[in-house]
Design the sequence.
């Protein structure tokens, strides 16, 4: 058995197939509100990129929050972005400057951080975009990167949260994401860098609102059957070692669509069991960060910067009654199996993944 987190509460349910935020009353009322109060943002609202959800439309406050004196934000503004898209940074800056929120919640987690003055900051938001000498660093920085002032501290945190498998998968995805970024000639996360910059300008705090990536990867791995695990690793390795021209052409063509590169959504098409841990659970976690985390207590306005693929699920979670759901239900708890059984059961798995990582390391080294 892997080093798993137990399955979350069955209360975590996805939006029904009939729910489409673009056709919902939430979006209709959002358009009306924006046209009256913030007409400069109407283009983003009409395209479905920007939605404002007022407190009156939230699901009921659960008992555990109400008893603590918690007050939810009056307005939550959700802007959907593409992580390799052009213009997303400018859109984020426009929204934050116009709305003037107290908090900006981004689709990043503490596991993807650097530490400065005891404050957790997602490293991708602090990658320099100035100067040709920084271009390589920017291309290599992505949402799976192990960043931080102490690399081994980042590795230790990854192991503690998700175990060896999550760490190995994170490294594989980091290799793959860096290659994709280099192939298309665009860095990941312009919207996150813009969010950090403009938040500092307007005096808003930046909140890392996503579930730790190691927990997500571990849960995703445990949801797969063994043949699916082997196929997934093989697909990632093929993607890393494939010719740049072919992958770049494919990705540039896909940029005409809603999302030029949404890895989690692409994976769930081939592996449907990944939909729950990669999308539905994270949608709810992000929604909870937007309206029920301590960071947004008594805020008037909050802006959320998330991938477009999460818009439908996050908005559904904001307005739905999901009962007395807590953050720990979205994270899970470690199993109580002994460390010896975990070590033995994970030996073959970790050996295979470790061997693949070593092959990739040697392959990259031979190309530099």
Sequence:
């Amino acid at each position: 058995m892997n080093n798993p987190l137990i399955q979350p509460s069955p209360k975590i349910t996805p939006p029904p197939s009939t729910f489409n935020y673009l056709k919902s009353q939430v979006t209709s009322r959002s358009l009306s509100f924006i046209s009256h109060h913030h007409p400069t943002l109407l283009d983003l609202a009409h395209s479905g990129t920007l939605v404002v959800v007022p407190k009156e439309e939230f699901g009921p406050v659960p008992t555990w929050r109400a008893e603590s004196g918690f007050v939810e934000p009056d307005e939550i503004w959700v802007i959907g972005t593409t992580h390799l898209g052009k213009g997303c940074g400018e859109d984020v800056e426009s929204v934050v400057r116009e709305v003037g929120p107290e908090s900006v919640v981004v689709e990043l987690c503490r596991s993807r951080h650097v530490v400065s003055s005891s404050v957790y900051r997602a490293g991708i938001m602090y990658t320099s975009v100035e100067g040709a000498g920084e271009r390589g660093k920017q291309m290599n920085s992505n949402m799976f990167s192990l960043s931080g002032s102490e690399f081994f501290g980042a590795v230790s945190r990854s192991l503690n949260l998700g175990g060896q498998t999550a760490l190995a998968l994170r490294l594989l995805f980091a290799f793959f994401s860096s290659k994709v970024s280099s192939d298309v000639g665009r860095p990941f996360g312009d919207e996150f860098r813009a969010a950090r910059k403009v938040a500092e300008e307007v005096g808003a705090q930046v909140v890392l609102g996503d579930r730790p990536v190691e927990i997500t990867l571990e849960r995703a791995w445990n949801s797969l059957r063994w043949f699916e695990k082997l196929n997934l690793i093989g697909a990632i390795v093929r993607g890393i070692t494939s010719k740049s021209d072919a992958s770049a052409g494919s990705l540039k063509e896909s940029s005409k669509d809603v999302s030029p590169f949404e890895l989690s959504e692409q994976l769930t098409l081939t592996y449907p069991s990944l939909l729950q841990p990669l999308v539905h659970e994270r949608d709810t976690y992000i929604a909870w960060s937007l309206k029920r985390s301590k960071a947004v207590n008594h805020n008037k306005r909050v802006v959320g910067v998330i991938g477009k693929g999460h818009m439908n699920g996050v908005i559904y979670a904001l307005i739905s009654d999901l009962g007395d759901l807590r953050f720990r239900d979205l994270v899970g708890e470690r199993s109580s199996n002994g460390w010896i059984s975990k070590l033995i059961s994970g030996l073959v798995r970790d050996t295979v993944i470790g061997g693949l990582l070593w092959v990739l390391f040697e392959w990259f080294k031979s190309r530099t």
Q: What stands out?
A: DSSP finds 15 helices and seven strands in the chain. The first helix runs from residue 25 to 37.
